[in-house]
Specification:
This protein is an alpha+beta fold. Among the domains are: about 170 residues, no CATH class; about 150 residues, no CATH class. Helices cover about 40% and strands about 15% of the residues. Strands 2, 6, 7, 8, 9 and 10 form a six-stranded antiparallel β-sheet that branches. Strand 4 and strand 5 form a beta hairpin. Helix 6 packs across helix 8. It starts with 7 loop residues before the first helix and ends in a 30-residue tail after the last helix.
Length: about 475
């Protein structure tokens, strides 16, 4: 397989990374390869055998043109600033320019220690690797901006965590791996010149339309803030809880990155937490907008030296941008929920309808994903799915009546509206109990259940009879679900 690298970060940003090498796995074996993503990247995998793919995507044999490096970054972790983090178990091979001109990082994750490993082994276990592959593909299929997984390879080695697990390497593809924490690192250690250089590079790479802005660094803050508002609104819209939205896990590209203790809600609860280490609920489902606001304030602080260097008066404008985030997010959130409810036009009554909906869902512990598909079924004259979700026939009747009244202000046929709703409300998500089942099977050597679930979540909207079980809510007796950091 031929990679055509164009490594702009390696060549133009010396001092912003550390050279690195992959550890050589003992017996790499390909678990899964993303052929569709390879085609998107312009990589020709035809005729390439699985052994060669395993060598390439485990770090055993790096492709020609790779310039492996580990990125430096800092970050606020659970509100506390860590001045040096960096890629402790990841290796950026280089950048590929796709046939349509889009640029992508190709990174190995779990490929061994780097200069930033902080006494860690730099490796990954098979469970977290396959979880990230599965959930990032589900997110991509639902239209959520995200990093993607190109390959997963078992290393043949064991990884010691609370017990030993089979080791694996994930190949991750992203628009870039520049994070809020990247800016924080260089603001904390080097100051305005380095922040300006990083900002200039980020703008050229991601947002070239901002190059000629009066203050490009202020424009960067504005653009990234807007992307984060849209991203978190999208997370909430599919019931996703990231789990660790530290500033080192916030990509300036607006993509979801670093799938560790993440999960999708079953029964709705605004305070839902899945992470074993989030004991205070800092990153609970309903707190993600507040944390996004906090993280963007940290991004603004890191950018201030560059913003000030262009025009000191723009520092106040940066503060204003941060202050505007809650209202900016609320607009993005209302747009997202209107689409889920089949509404196409904004109305003054939307706030009451939307806010009261989530209070009702929480009060009655309704399955989040199934509820919106059941609403569409009501438009088709079928109330069976809704009745299966609610305690009794009268539950939520006033709210449903309110919703129906809002629909009547728009002249759209019920069946057309139902189809539109089904196009944005997934039927199939990576249900937590199913994720655990397939990961357990995969660790035991049986990839078939995992591959079947992957096929399901890559097709989240269209009903298929043979997948009926995958659309069912979690069993009522399923207990609290806990996930763990992939390190």
């Amino acid at each position: 397989m031929k990679f055509v690298f164009d490594n702009s970060f390696h060549d133009g940003m010396e001092g912003f990374y550390a050279p690195a090498e992959a550890a050589k796995p003992s017996a790499p074996k390909l678990l899964v390869f993303n052929h569709a993503l390879a085609e998107r990247l312009g990589l020709d995998a035809d005729g390439v055998d699985t052994e060669q793919l395993a060598r390439l995507f485990s770090g055993q044999a790096l492709p020609d043109g790779a310039d492996p490096l580990a990125l430096a970054y800092a970050g606020h972790q659970f509100g506390h600033f860590s001045p040096q983090l960096g890629d402790g178990r990841a290796l950026l091979l280089g950048e590929i320019v796709a046939p349509d001109g889009a640029r992508f990082d190709v990174q190995l994750k779990g490929s061994g220690p780097t200069a930033f490993s902080r006494n860690g082994d730099g490796r990954a276990a098979i469970g977290p690797v396959l979880r990230e592959f599965l959930i990032s593909e589900a997110m991509a299929a639902m239209g959520v901006p995200t990093t993607r997984a190109l390959a997963a390879v078992a290393t043949g080695d064991r990884v010691q965590r609370e017990r030993t697990h089979p080791g694996a390497v994930l190949t991750r593809v992203a628009s870039s791996h520049i994070r809020v924490g990247t800016f924080q690192f260089f603001a904390a250690h080097f100051g305005a010149d380095h922040v300006t250089q990083l900002s200039d590079y980020s703008i050229r790479r991601h947002f070239p339309d901002l190059v000629d802005a009066p203050n490009p660094h202020l424009a960067l803050l504005d653009r990234v803030t807007g992307l984060q508002c849209e991203l978190v609104a999208h997370w909430l819209g599919v019931g996703f809880v990231h789990g660790v939205v530290n500033t080192d896990n916030v990509a300036i590209s607006g993509e979801t990155i670093d799938y560790g203790p993440c999960a999708f809600m079953d029964r709705f609860a605004a305070e839902m937490v899945f992470s074993s280490i989030d004991t205070n609920g800092r990153y609970a489902y309903g707190r993600q907008p507040t944390i996004m606001h906090w993280n963007m304030a940290r991004f603004a602080e890191a950018l201030l030296p560059a913003i000030h260097a262009v025009d000191p008066a723009d520092v106040d404008r940066a503060k204003d941008l941060v202050a505007e985030i809650p209202e900016r997010f609320r607009r993005a959130w209302f747009d997202r929920v209107r689409a889920k409810l089949g509404l196409t036009q904004a109305d003054d009554a939307d706030a009451e309808l939307i806010d009261s909906l989530f209070a009702e869902l929480e009060q009655h512990a309704v399955d989040f994903t199934s509820f919106f598909r059941a609403l569409a079924q009501l438009l088709r004259g079928d109330g069976a799915m809704m009745q299966g979700l609610l305690p009794n026939a009268e539950t939520m009747a006033p709210w449903i009546s309110h919703w129906w009244g809002q629909l009547e202000r728009e002249a759209i046929a019920p069946l057309e509206r139902a189809d539109t709703m089904d196009a944005v409300n997934p039927l199939y998500i990576p249900r937590n109990h199913r994720v655990e089942m397939v990961l357990e099977a995969a660790e035991g050597g049986d990839m078939a259940p995992w591959l079947e679930l992957l096929d399901v979540v890559r097709n989240p909207y269209a009903t298929r009879a043979e997948w009926a079980a995958y659309a069912q809510p979690a069993p009522k007796d399923s207990g609290p679900y806990t996930t763990f950091c992939g390190t």
